Amino acid sequence: MSQLRLLPSRLGPQATRLLSARDALGLSWRSRSSGPPATFPSSRGGGGASYMEEMYFAWLENPRSVHKSWDSFFQKASEEASSGSAQPQPLSVVHESRPVVSSRTKTSKLVEDHLAVQSLIRAYQIRGHHVAQLDPLGILDADLDSFVPSDLITTIDKLGESWDAFLGSWALRCLGSTYCQHIGLEFMFINDVEQCQWIRQKFETPGVMRFSSEEKRTLLARLVRSMRFEDFLARKWSSEKRFGLEGCEVMIPALKTIIDKSSEMGIENVILGMPHRGRLNVLANVIRKDLEQIFCQFDPKLEAADEGSGDVKYHLGMYHERINRVTNRNITLSLVANPSHLEAVDPVVQGKTKAEQFYRGDTHGKKVMSILVHGDAAFAGQGVVYETFHLSDLPSYTTNGTVHVVVNNQIGFTTDPRMARSSPYPTDVARVVNAPIFHVNADDPEAVIYVCSVAAEWRNTFNKDVVVDLVCYRRRGHNEMDEPMFTQPLMYKQIHRQVPVLKKYADKLIAEGTVTLQEFEEEIAKYDRICEEAYGRSKDKKILHIKHWLDSPWPGFFNVDGEPKSMTCPATGIPEDVLTHIGNVASSVPLEDFKIHTGLSRILRGRADMTRNRAVDWALAEYMAFGSLLKEGTHVRLSGQDVERGTFSHRHHVLHDQEVDRRTCVPMNHLWPDQAPYTVCNSSLSEYGVLGFELGYAMASPNALVLWEAQFGDFHNTAQCIIDQFISTGQAKWVRHNGIVLLLPHGMEGMPPPATPIPSPQAFTEDFEVRQLYDCNWIVVNCSTPANYFHVLRRQILLPFRKPLIIFTPKSLLRHPEAKSSFDQMVSGTNFQRVIPEDGAAARAPEQVRRLVFCTGKVYYDLVRERSSQGLEEQVAITRLEQISPFPFDLVKQEAEKYPGAELAWCQEEHKNMGYYDYISPRFMTILSRARPIWYVGRDPAAAPATGNRNTHLVSLKKFLDTAFNLQAFEGKTF
């Protein structure tokens, strides 16, 4: 609603719309009595007069010289001024045209009065939230900015006498009740007129917050469930941490309202992410997980095998399909598992939401949506929140709006807001994407419910993010065992005196006759009985099944018992005609009249030559892996910084017309008429947020190859939280399979550092059995040939289960003349080689070999070159480990036994404390004996991963290569 339509006004409808549009764009027009006027170029010359005065005087001279809306406005203003009417008329009154009264003094004063009213209204809209009664504790300075804008105090004094009585009563009450009570609105920074008007309509319209008796009773029942659930846990497990919701019990009806309203508007799937506070309550009363499943998790005799690796109950997730009782529509709810890294789940939820929308063809987010719950301290303090917000409007990452609910406890563990952030509100980060922010006093349930309903409607209407800030308190300490009085004594004295919101609201409804005391007590007794019965059932351990904690089930992918349908993997090679077809498309431009860069023409010709010669380099092998999967119906998504072209200008999956702006072509999507779609998208300059997003995307379906590429290998360090908390531990900790692929450009080139290959050796687990791949937590490879890269990508999808795949991809090998593979290594019947054995002269006479060097990745080509230069092809064998984890025990043992008289060495280009040696050494000991040690060859330990000095790099390279082929180097040494 227009801000002026709040008041009976002398302005005509068109003039009102113009003024409202002006204000939404941030223009401040004020009368001379309230400060310098805004100036605009004057047709009369001079320095520019007040725009209103300029038009007014022009109108006096010639009414036709201004827009007809202003002609109407000035006519009516003059008529009313001449009639002496002191009481404004409503907008609906239409006056007939009368002779113009040329009274400059009266009309000019009237214009000034209108502008002063405008300033007053605008002051309330912009800064009314500063004085709104948001804090249930009444200790405003502990959280919110207590500044009182002078506009709200001084503007009335500047108004004309004809407005005094009116503004002193009806208008100020209306403005105050809208902007300065239990709801504080921040939206005037939004640079869209329609959106600002929409919010005004929702909050300035009188009587919008009226609820029926049935709605009030439903709200009360939800509050009962929220509060009595926490009370029940406190009674039964008083010494257990559970991170309860006491102090913000209204969050449960708030979330249910968002879901109800969204369901009413057509949403069928809601994906939630949240930290641990209140998580059990959300599982019980929003997702509707069986209470006995929750209660049995408190059993102290529960074994780790019964709950994954034994993560705490308030970190786990849930997936549930049910009927929404308010709308009688089916709805699917997912709560994504999340560690104590609080906001780490934000991009994961967004990625999962984007994937669900993609697979449903839901391009505008009308079927699938996300809700993120935050804590106030984490929302302001965690950088991944900012990263996630900045994904919200990017074409390949948008989820068409997210409803953010901030549980604003006004404290972070023991840190009060004055020490935790530099902005007045914890929600200020959301302003960066023009998301409206609705602050609301959590002790006013009806205000909360109305705000949440508006938030859900906003998201559905504008497909943009919105923030609901529930200003509340934390009745207990950081957890139930914590003593908050140590650090916040005054706050907690007030909290101890605070009447719970359930009692406040029940007393209100009883007083107004909506419910009786008996009905209220019966509602409490009913839910208490439900909890007690579930508690009794929870003692039967047979009811516990880990599948109840899955947040992303894959129907039909596994057997009923959750095991793979088979333990075999078909050959990953493909027919030669398919390879040739993909190679031909990869070296062409499928669109007509599409002009590409001359340098790119040379690259495409090179691909065509390789295809004719039945050979591939790294980029073409990747193209063929992706293209063959698309042919088989597997969606492929590649994301990361500059992945469309490739950081090293090798990929070029998106072609750009050199003469038409933003005209692009993705040849991969022109391979076959009925192929699966290929998505390749440059990401924002973010690792933490984007990797989390892609992890969530891969979580949604097992039938997609989802890859994230770091620009350089060490860039993954910024995303280490996602790797440690979700990828490495995914299956053991979260009972979750995930097939995400990480491409980490690696290799010591005398440039900035690559990825550290083994960030956490203890993160790997293996088995000697056939189930080795299934039993490991992730797969790590460092391929040395394009063919092996091709096979490992295809194997990732053809496996009957999903494991994260870490691939150390090369830099210099992208164009290395020896790093080429023949079609013969990729055709039907071929497979990924976990180990590539020596196949030269040394292999033909193994008994004469004096040294067997094991290595992985790019250093192989350095070793081969050095061996050739020294003429040691018959005395030194070189074997490549292509798969690092799970460790290929069987094949390594076979290679070692093939050369019984050779001493063994492990050669790596990385520094000793950063490469693979500490990982492979004990595994070699497992299959060999101390009588036959494996020696280390490589760079010395160092603090920095790599030098940036080319000469230093070459000197260290020459040094360890000399050691590798010095056949007397290890004589006389003890292991």
UniProtKB/TrEMBL annotation:
Domain Transketolase-like pyrimidine-binding: start-end pairs: 616-816
Catalysed reactions listed for this entry: N(6)-[(R)-lipoyl]-L-lysyl-[protein] + 2-oxoglutarate + H(+) = N(6)-[(R)-S(8)-succinyldihydrolipoyl]-L-lysyl-[protein] + CO2
EC number of this enzyme: 1.2.4.2
Key word Magnesium present: yes
Compartments, record wording: Mitochondrion
Keywords, alphabetical: Magnesium, Metal-binding, Mitochondrion, Oxidoreductase, Thiamine pyrophosphate, Transit peptide
Statement: the UniProt record of this protein carries the keyword Magnesium: yes
Gene3D superfamilies in UniProt: 3.40.50.12470, 3.40.50.970, Multifunctional 2-oxoglutarate metabolism enzyme, C-terminal domain, TPP helical domain
A GO BP entry: tricarboxylic acid cycle
SMART domains in alphabetical order: Transket_pyr (SM00861)
Protein family per UniProt: Belongs to the alpha-ketoglutarate dehydrogenase family.
Protein name: oxoglutarate dehydrogenase (succinyl-transferring)
Organism per entry: Prolemur simus
